[in-house]
Request: fold
Amino acid sequence: MFNGNVLRDAIISAANNLSNNRKAVDDLNVFPVPDGDTGTNMSMTISNSVREICKMENETAGKIAATNASALLRGARGNSGVITSLLFRGFSKGIGNDEYVTAENLSAAFELGVDAAYKAVMKPTEGTILTVARVASEYARSALKKGADALGVFEAAIEGAKIALDETPELLPTLKKAGVVDAGGRGFVIILEGMMSVFKDGVIIQSVSAAQNLSEETEEESSRNAAGEFEGEITFTYCTEFIVNRNDECEKEPSELRAYLETIGDCVVVVDDEEIIKVHVHTDHPGNAIENALTFGQLVKLKIENMRDQHEKAKHDSQNTKKKPAKSADLTEEIKPVEITKPIGFVSVCAGDGIAELFRDLGVDTIVSGGQTMNPSTDNILRAIESTPAETVYVLPNNKNIIMAAEQTIPISTRKVIVLHTRTIPQGIAAMLGYDDSADVDANAIAMQKASERISTGQLTFAARDSDFDGHKIKKGEILAMLENKISFTDTELEKATLKLIKQMVKKDSEFITVIYGDEVSTPQALALEKQLKAKYGAKTEITLVNGGQPVYYYIISVE
Reply:
């Protein structure tokens, strides 16, 4: 058995071990586009717990586990960080209120952690951290059945995790082609190894640097997304989302709803707590999903949209009027809840002074500094929400790797929070333009999401590493042309690549082209590009040039 002090030291050791190996985990990412890296996100997530539990003395194991889970949830960054927090939230449920970590509750902790993580992921992908955690749980249960003590159960979990990690390339062809194992899975193994150092030898692995205190100002510039985060083709027509206010008299478990939804669609996510069940599913029969969900309680925040309806025209009136920058909710600013003075407010995640000004022009109250290379935590987003003086707050993540972290704020905020699934800056802008102050909250949520998905987004960035990805042989430093968050082609000349990408994006009925240039593009360069675009498309298309000042992306382009 392990008491609370031992569990506390084990978590601190795990955070230090991951911090020491953060760069090695980051380097396992196979996608060459710079983005918030797996190792960095996981390290900053678990390090958020260290600041809380290091002050705790002689508490029960259950108390340590609960405090750790709460801190991880608030500190979760990126999809890998959110999954890590969910694994430990389940871990906390397994320990419960027990004074000690035992073989029995430790095995249950692994199982509940895996269950929580699988339930939350929209499209679980085997060959990722999910697989590694699941196999670790299976080995732990097997060891318990053979009579192992707590240490034996944990040793078995690590053995299973390592075996599963080595097999991840066989489950994900992208990993096999790159000759690497899954980054998130490797990070999870490092966490377990750090804990084992305390459980077995009583030794806390020491941090070799101050990496566990990393802030946005000290992060490295170049990093990439994990391989498991890419979108698949549309199989079902309707994206259906809603929240169920749980009926106290309903004895059915949310897992039953998830099981049903998986029979009528894909991309299923069902996240629950004591009061609500949050549901997302892609299906051809949204009415069936709603009918089944009604047996669990009343529905709110209902959204149904046709994902194939991508070519409708939307109203667009984007101007780059100069105003003072929106206030920022970054890591160094202490944001406290403010009094509610209006019904509706907006929070947007973005990087770049010009983009922040643009969102402010469109009505955003609070900017969360972040995006590529640094994903804000759940706590950052929560503090921004609480600093917005509105009863209902719409959140625009503007990055696919931030959506999960943003959604974790829904059950813990004092506001009503609506997270729109905006995956790019242009989608966020379009969503703001789709807001109608004469419509109600839920109608606006639907309209804003639809408006965001009518926008075609192109981005020009650089390859952060050599890669052979998705049929593209990519060399470090090459220009990457991204269309809808996927690599379209590579080039060695920025202007040539930009014009080629825009040509791919423009259709016969396109009316607007907006070009947002970043901090590595000079104004003369941007004006020269604008001149060429006006010469080619100006007769039928309105062209807008915006100085966004964003890092990582030379140009962010939207066409509608």
